[in-house]
Write a structure and sequence with these properties.
The structure holds two protein chains of two kinds. Chain A is of the alpha+beta class. Chain A has a single domain, classed as Ubiquitin-like (UB roll) (Roll), CATH 3.10.20. In chain A, 10% of the residues lie in helices and 26% in strands. Chain A has a five-stranded mixed beta sheet, with no helix packed on it. The radius of gyration of chain A is 12 Å and the shape is globular. Chain B contains 22 helices and 17 strands. In chain B, strand 16 and strand 17 form a beta hairpin. In chain B, helix 13 packs across helix 14. The two termini of chain B are 30 Å apart. The mean pLDDT of chain B is 97. The chains are: A alpha+beta, B alpha+beta.
């Protein structure tokens, strides 16, 4: 299935190269954790995960055309 | 810190007193709010002779504690009409610590037109005429003062906006490069300083030194606990130093709460061009600096130095709030234009949040089009000219909305909302509505648990849990604001209890006290109670603890949310 994967801050380096610049192909029923592993993002770091703008977890199951965003622990002001 | 310096602008006298009993043991916001509540009539004209401008040092500013050195500025606000504390980094807070100054209280009003500078040294405090500084921006003001008083001196100043008594004006404090880039921004504090004919404060700490703690070994241990927390938490040790505060742009945008085009949408299509990641890359490409501390003793180093296309210094940062206000909120995606506006805000002495919110309202009114970066720069250049347009805009979002009959004006207690929409982030909405400061994000930074999973996790999209979240953060913040510590230590100490212990154990070791964690909370509560009481006497009622009505009616995309915390719940925030 196709999902939109956006990686930010220190995770930018793990951004997948895709021919379709917006969507990445992933196996149906992938969890956020599956995608984190397949991209090689370090597991132990705490992460801020958004799926379609709502907080998710590594166990959240993704659907077709979901917008997944992953941030390392960050804050600002 | 033993000294209170009283500056009477009516007779131009300056005297130094010991801190009286009723103000002992207080610092920063606790001290400014207590003095203002005790000595300023709550119904006075904020630009008249009865208001007082209190500049206070935090309790740990006379120590080498990590991230101490913040300076608090308090008064009755000419923007909100209520009590105000605005807080800045820079070099002056630490200098006050070395000089034993707890507070400077500026009172009265000069009988004749004219400007003065207050010169503070280790052993002296005096006023001198400063009409040669009249009409100058903060950068030229600091340059002229530096030629006389030196580069190692700290400077507090106002620009043209404060001289014109504009209610969107700020007070500048010099940074470690001797530039006027750190501001006590919110609430028109610059206008109060201008109304008293005070153009600048010269802070020369030559010969000054930190006093010895009562318990030097205890202080070292406690200080290390805070330092370790700051160095281990990823926010304070990696995220903030690398990307600065503007790392938030993409997160808040992703969360759907990044106010776009005068709070009409929750995501900005141009966010990538003004993001913290892009800013980081541009800064490094052009030879600017990241990992920069605005105060001596800062270990977080979230500030940065921004160069223009030619590789020359332009401005600091800019910070997340500034880039949001003058970027997404105006539909502008040109980072260089925003940096130029930041430079001009620092120079003229304008609160960048109030300014950007104001331009958003002006764009809604059709004064310029959303997205017009050149037009936005033209607007800010009106301010030092003193034109009617410049004065209207310089007086803030509410004044501008009134002038142009705009209905969608994002203010609480007349002060503009900062960079988080309250509809999909309801915790910060509670803080905006109820804080004694007006719409203020730092006063109870619910973004931490609502978005960043720091200090807990509270779903931002529902009303449940938000009142308690905001209440607890407002109490904790009032305490941290009194210690002279940068509020960003909260990201570490909310998650690492030993860091929090380090804070009050340092106070105990420095001053020979026996504070517990509960005492810290009690201090915060006392400060808030004092402020609430002042506001009540100034005429505020629960009707003033509300968001503008359209936040309860207009759904914000992409989540299509309205603000759902009920009025009766908002009225329970101060039940303690």
């Amino acid at each position: 299935m196709k999902v939109e994967i956006k990686l930010f801050a220190g995770f930018r380096a793990y951004t997948p190269n895709t021919r379709d610049r917006r969507y990445t192909d992933v196996p149906d029923g992938s969890t956020v954790g599956d995608i984190i592993n397949s991209l090689g993002i370090p597991e132990e770091k705490k992460k801020i995960i958004f799926i379609n703008g709502v907080h998710g977890t590594v166990d959240s199951v993704l659907q077709e055309k979901d917008r997944l965003a992953i941030f390392p622990p960050v804050a600002g002001g | 810190m033993e000294k209170i310096i009283r500056v009477n602008m009516s007779d131009l006298s300056v005297k130094t007193d010991k801190v009286p009993k009723q103000y002992q043991g207080l610092g920063g916001r606790a001290l400014t709010s207590t003095i203002v509540a005790s000595e300023v009539p709550p119904t006075c004209d904020p630009l008249g002779p009865d208001n007082k401008l209190v500049i206070a040092s935090g309790l740990l500013n006379n120590t080498p504690a990590p991230n101490a050195g913040r300076l608090s500025v308090g008064c009755k606000s000419p923007l909100t009409g209520g009590i105000k504390e605005a807080n800045a980094g820079g070099v002056v807070g630490t200098k006050f610590g070395r000089m034993g100054i707890a507070a400077v209280v500026v009172e009265g009003k000069p009988k004749k037109d004219g400007y003065y500078k207050l010169i503070l040294t280790k052993d002296d405090a005096r006023l001198e005429p400063a009409d040669d500084l009249k009409g100058l921006g903060n950068y030229d003001t600091v340059a002229k003062l530096t030629a006389v008083h030196g580069e190692k001196t700290g400077y507090v100043s106002i620009g043209q906006a404060g001289e014109m008594l504009l209610t969107g004006s700020s007070i500048a404090v010099t940074d470690r490069e001797n530039r006027p880039t750190r501001h006590a921004g919110r609430g028109g504090v610059g206008a109060v300083m201008g109304s008293k004919g005070l153009k600048a404060v010269v802070v020369d700490d030559t010969g000054g030194a930190f006093p010895k703690p009562v318990d030097p070994e205890g202080f070292k241990k406690a200080s290390k606990k805070l330092l370790d927390a700051l160095k281990t938490h990823s926010v304070t040790s990696e995220g903030l130093p690398t990307y600065g505060t503007n790392i938030l742009a993409n997160i808040i945008n992703e969360a759907g709460g990044y106010p776009t085009r005068n709070f009409s949408e929750g995501r900005f299509e141009g966010v990538e061009k003004i993001s913290g990641e892009t800013q980081h890359d541009v800064i490094l490409e052009r030879g600017g600096e990241i990992k920069h501390g605005c105060m001596p003793g800062c270990v977080i180093q979230c500030s940065r130095i921004y160069h223009d296309k030619k590789g020359e210094y332009l401005t600091k940062g800019p910070e997340y709030e500034t880039i949001w206000a003058n970027g997404a909120n105006c539909g502008i995606d040109d980072l260089d234009a925003i940096a130029q506006i930041d430079r001009l805000c620092d120079d003229y002495g304008l609160d960048t949040i109030e300014w950007g919110a104001t331009v958003g309202v002006a764009m809604e009114a059709g004064v310029k089009k959303f997205g017009d970066a050149k037009g936005a720069i033209e607007l800010i250049k009106e301010v030092p000219k003193g034109t009617e347009l410049g004065k209207t805009l310089g007086n803030g979002a509410a004044a501008t909305g009134k002038k142009y009959n705009v209905t969608r004006v994002p203010v609480v207690k007349n002060q503009a909302l900062p960079a988080y929409d309250p509809r999909p982030i309801m915790g910060i909405g509670v803080t905006y509505a109820t804080s004694t400061m007006g719409a203020d994000h730092t006063a109870g930074y619910a973004i931490a648990p609502n978005i960043m999973k720091v200090g807990g996790e509270v779903n931002p999209l529902v009303p449940e849990g938000q009142v308690e979240t905001s209440r607890n953060l407002q109490i904790a913040t009032a305490a941290v604001d009194s210690a002279g510590l940068c509020l960003f230590i909260a990201f570490a100490i909310l998650d690492i209890p030993s860091g929090f212990e380090g804070v009050y154990e340092m106070l105990n070791a420095q001053y020979g006290l026996n504070l517990t964690a509960d005492d810290v909370g009690a201090l915060g509560m006392q400060v808030l109670k004092t402020e609430r009481e002042f506001n009540e006497k100034a005429g505020f009622t629960k009707a003033d603890d509300r968001l503008p009505a359209y936040f309860l009616a207009e759904k914000l995309s992409p989540h299509d949310k309205i603000f759902e915390v009920k009025d009766e719940e908002l009225d329970t925030v101060f039940n303690f």
